[in-house]
Amino acid sequence: MKLIEAARKVIEDHQAQLIRPKKTQVQGEPIQYDAKDWNGNKKGWTILDSTTANVMCKVYAKVEAERPEMIAKFDRAPLPNAIAFIWAIANPKKG
Known about the structure:
Blueprint lengths: L2 H11 L3 E5 L11 E5 L8 E3 L1 H17 L1 H9 L2 H12 L5
Antiparallel strand pairs: 1-2, 1-3
Helix pairs in contact: 1-2, 2-3, 2-4
């Protein structure tokens, strides 16, 4: 699943998910992720909480409508970069 699909699952299930990039990726294609329910053990996984997932879905929808070419870059970005991108758009520096 793509990162945005994992975020939608968090919102739908009202529960944080553990996510990590799949070990096998196709170069040039969107990064695919494994996701599972958070069971308290997160070794090797990243927690995708509901706040981040909600912001991610809202920003993704806005960017998709206004600048669809950026969505392809987002889908191919490593997880920390994708999350930083989302928060940078959600909280622009003022002044």
